[in-house]
């Protein structure tokens, strides 16, 4: 407990034991020991007997003086470090040399840690000693740990890894939340609110102003994104940069070439729309990537691959298309639309770009604009024509029935092109938001086969289930249930646990709307096979039965 005192020429318990073992008059020896090791203040000696008269133990007195002095010393260390003196760090290093031998002594340890914390560059030898001792490493300040981490990527990785896992778990929990709502969904929290999340705040604190640690975290995120294809790592990449931006950490923001692009995009995500002015600003950043610096496209694509960015881009594309439709203009003639598609395409190609290390913007298939979008618009026109037809007086009505098939180009691009598929899926959400049952029944069967099974991804299913709550009364009809469940969700639930979970989330919510006979059949169908470890699915089924 008092290791290190003899090195500083201060007696400890062992010395007292030795003195008492070898002396002839123990009381005198104790007096002598107290004189030599007590507080060396002549005026104090005559005052101490007063404390004895009050029954105050000497230990209590010395302890209170010690605590007071320790606080004063720690305050002084902070004042020296924050001062302007040229030799301030020299003074602290001198104090560190004197106090470090006592670092294992609980009462002195806070002082040593305070000195270490305020040294911008702790001597290498001391850092290694702290790193080698688990207890010391645990209690040292994050400022000291940063100095250890920057030269020990593996150790830093061990500290960061649980946080990254926690982040993914939280995102997935939000996607599978039992609250189905169009108002409060995965994309509802504002960027600023999301940056207040525990993981982002902890990572921001761990990085501080250290560019080397920031680069390490980005490297971890790139590697994990490559390994798992999980787009939530792209969200964290953007959130981390913007969290440092909020704290005004120019040491990092000024050297991250994506900073201004991310800042501008963050404002668009906040508004859930990319307006013309910001669109041109973002275009300026993309066009400004210089020769020899193409690698920055890898990071920009990751930032555009963030689901929150992607959501904003596609919502903006939908608004753009509606405007074009009202102006009877062609998609290819809108420069704003072409830019949004360019960014969507860059974001969608993030994984391929980072994987291949070929930093070149993916070429947007122009037929998406000349074939797919007109096909999608024709679906809108069909719907509009039918609605107008229904409002006509009976003698003027034609025998028009609602179309059930979709244009070939629409189906083909939904299956073969990533950018087209993303727009197609958002169009389905748009139709659900309008509570357009006819159009929904026409579109849902087309989603069984989409590019890379995108229609069965968690983000789309989370949004679709939320949007379908607007049509909850329609679930009283077996035809509508059949389109949603038999025609879409149940086509892949047995091979995809996530689809199974989303189907059950819907059933839990629509419990009282679905026809009892259909409900019974559905529940039996969704019962997971005995041997399969669908733990979460079983839990959801249990909740459903209880309800």
TrEMBL record:
The terms describing its cellular component in GO are:
NELF complex
Write down the Pfam families for this protein, in alphabetical order: COBRA1
Q: Which GO terms describe its biological process?
A: negative regulation of transcription elongation by RNA polymerase II
Would you tell me the protein name for this molecule? Negative elongation factor complex member B
State the organism of origin: Echeneis naucrates (Live sharksucker)
Gene, per the UniProt record = nelfb
């Amino acid at each position: 407990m008092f290791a290190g005192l003899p090195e500083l020429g201060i007696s400890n318990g062992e010395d007292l034991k030795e003195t008492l073992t070898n002396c002839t008059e123990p009381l005198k020896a104790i007096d002598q020991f107290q004189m030599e090791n007590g507080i060396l203040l002549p005026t104090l000696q005559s005052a101490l007997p007063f404390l004895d008269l009050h029954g105050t133990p000497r230990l209590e007195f010395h302890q209170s003086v010690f605590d007071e002095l320790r606080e004063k010393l720690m305050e002084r260390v902070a004042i020296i470090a924050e001062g302007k003196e040229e030799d301030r760090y020299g003074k602290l290093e001198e104090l560190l040399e004197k106090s470090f031998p006592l670092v294992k002594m609980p009462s002195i340890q806070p002082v040593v840690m305070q000195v270490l914390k305020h040294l911008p560059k702790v001597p290498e030898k001391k850092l290694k000693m702290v790193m080698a001792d688990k207890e010391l490493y645990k209690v040292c300040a994050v400022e000291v740990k940063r100095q250890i981490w920057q030269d020990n990527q593996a150790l830093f990785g061990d500290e960061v890894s649980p946080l990254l896992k926690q982040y993914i778990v939280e995102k997935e929990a939000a996607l599978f939340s039992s609250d189905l709502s169009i108002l409060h969904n995965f994309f509802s929290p504002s960027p600023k609110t999301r940056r207040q999340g525990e993981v982002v705040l902890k990572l921001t604190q761990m990085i501080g102003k250290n560019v080397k640690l920031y680069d390490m975290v980005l490297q971890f995120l790139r590697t994990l994104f490559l390994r798992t294809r999980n787009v939530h790592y792209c969200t964290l990449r953007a959130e981390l940069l913007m969290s440092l931006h909020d704290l005004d950490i120019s040491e990092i923001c000024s050297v991250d070439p994506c900073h201004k692009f991310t800042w501008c995009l963050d404002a668009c995500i906040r508004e859930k729309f990319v307006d013309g002015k910001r669109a041109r600003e973002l275009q300026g950043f993309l066009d400004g990537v210089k020769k020899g610096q193409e690698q920055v496209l890898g990071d920009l694509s990751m930032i555009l691959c963030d689901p929150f960015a992607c959501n904003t881009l596609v919502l903006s594309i939908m608004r753009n298309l509606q405007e074009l439709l009202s102006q009877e203009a062609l998609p290819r003639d809108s420069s704003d639309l072409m830019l949004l598609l360019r960014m969507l395409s860059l974001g969608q190609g993030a994984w391929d770009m980072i994987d291949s290390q070929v930093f070149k913007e993916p070429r947007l298939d122009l037929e998406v604009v000349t074939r797919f979008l007109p096909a999608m618009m024709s679906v809108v026109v069909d719907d509009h024509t039918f609605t107008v037809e229904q409002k006509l007086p009976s003698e003027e009505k034609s025998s028009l029935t609602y179309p059930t098939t979709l244009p070939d180009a629409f189906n083909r691009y939904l299956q073969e092109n990533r950018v087209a598929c993303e727009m197609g899926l958002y169009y389905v959400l748009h139709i659900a938001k309008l509570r357009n049952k006819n159009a929904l029944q026409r579109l849902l069967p087309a989603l069984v086969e989409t590019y890379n099974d995108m229609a069965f991804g968690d983000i789309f299913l989370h949004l679709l289930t939320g949007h379908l709550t607007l049509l909850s009364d329609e679930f009283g009809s077996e035809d509508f249930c059949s389109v949603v469940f038999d025609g879409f969700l149940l086509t892949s639930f047995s091979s995809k646990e996530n689809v199974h979970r989303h189907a059950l989330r819907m059933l839990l919510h629509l419990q009282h709307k679905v026809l009892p006979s259909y409900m019974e059949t559905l529940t039996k169908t969704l019962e997971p096979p005995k041997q399969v470890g669908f733990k979460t699915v079983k839990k959801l089924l249990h909740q459903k039965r209880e309800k």
